Amino acid sequence: MKIDALLSLAFSVQSNRGVYAVLLGSGASRAAGIPTGWEVVIDLIRKLAAADQEDCEPDPIGWYEAKFGDKPDYSRLLDALAKTAPERQQLLRRYFEPTEQERTEGLKQPTKAHRAIARLMSGGHIRVVLTTNFDRLLERSLDDEGIAPMVISTADQVEGATPLVHAGPCVIKLHGDYLDTRILNTPEELARYDGRTEALLARVFDEFGLIVCGWSAEWDTALRSAIERTPSRRYATYWVGRGALGDAANRLISHRNATPLIATDADSFFEDLETKVLAIEEASAPHPLSARSLGEAAKRFLPDPAARIRLCDLITNEAERVAAELRTTPYFDTSSAITTASVTAKVRKYDALCSGLVAISVQCGRWGDLGVAKELARAQIRLHATRGDSGNTFWLAFQKYPVALLAYAACLGAIVGRKLDVVSVLMGTELTRSGREPVLAVTVVPPAAMLDHFAWGNQLEGMGDRHAALSDWLAEYFWVQVGTLFASREEFNAHFDEVEILFALANHRLSPPVNMPDWHPPGAYGYRTRSRRQVVEKILKSMHDEGNGSPYVRARLFGATVGECEEALNAFTSFADKVSAQWDLFGLAG
Fold first, then answer.
1. Domain ranges, residue 94
2. Does residue 51 register a pLDDT over 50?
3. Which residues, 6+ apart, have CB-to-CB distance to 527 below 8 Å?
4. Alpha carbon 522 to chain centroid distance?
5. In this prediction, what percent of the chain has a pLDDT beyond 70?
6. Does 94 share its domain with 144?
7. What gap in Å lies between CA 320 and CA 383, rounded to an integer?
8. Between these two residues, 160 and 492, which has the higher pLDDT value?
9. Does residue 396 carry a pLDDT above 70?
10. Per residue, what are the HEC states of 137-203?
11. Which of 352, 325, 453 minimizes the C-alpha distance to 344?
12. Measuring CA to CA, how many Å separate 589 from each of 5, 42, 372, 469?
């Protein structure tokens, strides 16, 4: 059976959320009536000739070279025609911004393709767009979706940019922005990028799948070379064209082992892709009630004592639904081959299956009390009880993952709501299953405690070179699920790191290590040194200001008094610094 290439792409984009980048060429903007950079240069030459009362036709470029003895340069042309920055901006606006007449005709405005891409980025399906265009049509479309993307349009901005793994939607304008005179236009300018830009492109082409649309590959030598230099192809490449492609494009398609796609235009392609992705997403929903609906129901029940029974039923029913699914073959099978594809597929199934319970747990952690925390603890026990005892130890270890999803969700909410007693209840819960001694949840939840070998998380797609692979995977999952609770990715990361630090402290106290007395379960905090220190300072300040009344002390997660908690924090800090030094030495990603 041969599956349509567009449908295959839609499945990949939906199931590999955020791992595809779009490379958008001039074809997308030409449809909006935006000229290419070279067309702007030619028009500026005509204006310069008119100002000198000369005729540059039929060869404006030849006239310029004969007149000035040099090839045309965008910046020098602007300087010749407009002496000040405001004058230059005003001159350029007419090429990229619509007049009233053009607006009436729908010109120089975001196309259906731009808007479909913006919606895919809003939904987390596409994270990065590379574009050779100078205009701001995509940024305007993202703004209409309520998204302020990270925009990189110069090599200087590459240095100060948030790493892509931690950034939200990102637009990389390879040739610059129309209001910056440093844009790249001429063959010489397009022959080589700044080293900082080349390093960024190397990461994108190595770590992301690629959807190429509206780019011929004929003129952009530096961009073509950046693709050719990338040896890795972790994810697929799809190349969209209207018909027969040129030699340069075909060479890159062969190099990337790309799948060609024929489309009428960019508008129809991206709208069709979006429609298929959303249809697959809807069909993949694990429950008639969406995760958001379950979360909203929990939030509605939480403040009303009369609705407590309904809240308990909501938690119990969703936990039992998940547990029943976990007992079935697709999740319970522990004999399948261990490959990146099989591990990623199984973990994604867990992620989708538990999305409703995650939404409930976040709200219960944030707004609930000890009674609600105990209901979540019962849900943990239900999930844990589905684990099997025979089969490959790798798959048996990953059967603990759903319990971790619930705990991370509730604890993220609890830290936002300063309800650390919820964390204490969930970490101290005895998880039981038939024929086995009970274990504390704190020995199951942290990835380094969950997996017999911490590096097993590196089997996940895109996580092969990471210090804390499963922690990073969880961070990406929860950013998509609950990121709206936080003002920025940086704030979310700080809360996520606090969750993992509390898990590490609680694990060390409630399940003291025997062979390595200083050991704490490592997490993403191991490489996010600045964030870790800020969390420790936050905890110390709370205890200094509130004494034994501090929520960190009252929770008894890592001590019953300020003195005990400070001693535990000192031991943790010493261990975490050693982990950071070791990870820096090995130089893995993170």
1. 37-104
2. yes
3. 467, 468, 580, 583, 590
4. 22
5. 92
6. no
7. 8
8. 492
9. yes
10. HHHHHHHHCCCCCEEECCHHHHHHCCCCCCCCCEEEECCCCCCCCCCCCCCCHHHCCCHHHHHHHHH
11. 352
12. 32, 45, 38, 9
Shared domain for 372 and 453, answered yes or no, is yes
Last residue of a domain, one of 50, 74, 104: 104
Strand arrangement, sheet containing 126-131: 150-152, 170-173, 126-131, 20-24, 209-213, 237-241, 259-262
Distance CA 187, CA 371 (A): 69
User: Using 50, 70 and 90 to split pLDDT, how confident is the model at 77?
Assistant: confident
- Domain identity same for 422 and 460: yes
Higher pLDDT, 339 or 80: 339
- Closest to 170 (Cα-Cα) out of 200, 127, 132: 127
Residue found under tokens 């909501």? 314
Per-residue model confidence as pLDDT tens digits over 6-36: 888 988 898 888 889 999 988 778 778 788 7
The answer to whether residues 228 and 255 touch, using CB atoms and an 8 Å cutoff, is: yes
Per residue in 180-198, pLDDT (tens digit) is: 767 665 567 677 888 899 9
Specify whether the CB–CB gap between 153 and 173 falls below 8 A: yes
* Cβ–Cβ under 8 Å, residues 356 and 318: yes
Q: Whose CA is closest to 210, among 230, 194, 190, 195?
A: 230
Q: What is the pLDDT of residue 1?
A: 38
The DSSP H or E segment spanning 212 is: strand 209-213
Q: What's residue 546's pLDDT? A: 93
Amino acid residing at 585: L
pLDDT value at residue 374: 93
Q: Which amino acid is at 460?
A: L
Shared-domain flag, residues 196 and 61: no
Q: What is the pLDDT of residues 199-230, one digit of tens each?
A: 999 989 988 999 999 888 887 889 999 999 88
Half-sphere exposure of 66 (CA within 13 A, CB side): 10
* 348 to 16, 83, 170, 303: CA distances (angstroms): 9, 57, 24, 33
Task: Find how far residue 336's CA is from the centre of its chain.
Answer: 29
Mean pLDDT, rounded, of the chain: 85
2: left (phi over 0), alpha (psi -120 to 50) or beta: beta
